[in-house]
Each structure stands twice: as structure tokens, then as C-alpha cells.
């Protein structure tokens, strides 16, 4: 069962998302919060698999809420998905950098919304190829972390290959097929690379892959 926390200051938005989620046999909404501060408290209480977090809220916004979840070791398995009305704006980039697994625009169709929740629960990043391109354009212009190159030296050849494939938007099953290994082995390579690079999730792994020069933007 996928456990979901809804964090949004608009009751109608929360009730709308809940209505879709409650129809699914494999998804359960465990709590709702009207701001980020409540969301953090409820995340610690219920330990959801997925937290759907609005980007702009009173008391504590989505970025700070995401940062709070990412900084709490007890919430390491909570995957934050940012909800926004505006698509890819500066706030979304900040939230991804803070530790969000991806984002959804609030006018998403129900089928895509449900699919996204399941993708996030698996630990995969919600980054379509077009989104990845914009993410790259934002982050490749930023200064590299001083220790990123040194950390890359600790990756094995197979881990590097897995990171490159993640950065190109492949799922674990697609990575497994490309590397001719089992899905479990592919996931292990990805997870070990994330641990070594100190990436919370696949979204941050993509950012690091481009920031470090391990992958370069395609023309």
C-alpha cells in the first residue's frame, strides 16, 4: 500500500487529489496538512511513502518543507513531489535542489497523476526528457561543488554507466536491459552511486551527473 501525505493550503485542491487517490486499491491518503509546518509534523507522525507538497504555502513553503524532510534521517524514505500551478519556475528548481523527487502541475490529468504517485513511491524521479533538458540548462551553468570530481573517482565503471543512463532518463528496468543485468542489480548500481555522491534521489543524481561533467548536454 502506497501511503500519501497531502500538503496544500487550498482545501479544494486537497479534496480533489484525495478523491482520485481514494479510488485506488493500492494508495491510501494517511493525512492532510494546510501548511508546511503541519506537513513536517504529520510526515514524522505517519511516515508516508509520498508527500505531495504545494510550492507556495503560508507558515512554511514547499521548498523549506522539502528541505526539512530531506534533512531528517527518520524521513529518508519519504519521496517529496512538488505541486505547482506554474510549471518549471525558479521555485521548482530550488525544490529539486532541496531534495524533491520531482514535480507535478496541478492541472495534470487524473491518469498521469496516479501514475506519478506510483513512480515516486518506487523512488524514481518525475523528470520527463523535456524537464530534464530544462534542469540541465539551469544547473550546468552553476559552479561545480568542489568535491564532486573527487567523489566521482570513487564510482565503479558500472556505477558510472548507471548514472549516465539515469541522467538520460532511463528507468531501472531500462537500465537493466541496456547493461544486460537484472533489474535488482541495476537498482543496486544506482543506489550505490547515489550513496557515494550523497544524492538523496534520482533527481539530484541527474543534477550531479551534469554538474560534474560525467554527462554533457546534447545539442
UniProtKB/TrEMBL annotation:
Is the keyword Manganese assigned to this protein? Answer: no
- InterPro entries per UniProt: CheY-like_superfamily, NreC/VraR/RcsB-like_REC, Sig_transdc_resp-reg_C-effctor, Sig_transdc_resp-reg_receiver, Tscrpt_reg_LuxR_C, WalR-like
Q: Which Pfam families match?
A: GerE (PF00196), Response_reg (PF00072)
Q: In its keyword annotation, does this UniProt entry include Glycosyltransferase?
A: no
Q: Which residues form the Response regulatory domain?
A: 3-121
Query: Where 4-aspartylphosphate occurs along the chain?
Result: 54
Q: Which residues form the HTH luxR-type domain?
A: 148-213
Q: Which GO terms describe its biological process?
A: phosphorelay signal transduction system; regulation of DNA-templated transcription
Q: Which molecular-function annotations from GO does this UniProt entry contain?
A: DNA binding
**Assigned keywords, A-Z:** DNA-binding, Phosphoprotein, Transcription, Transcription regulation
Q: What is this protein called?
A: DNA-binding response regulator, LuxR family
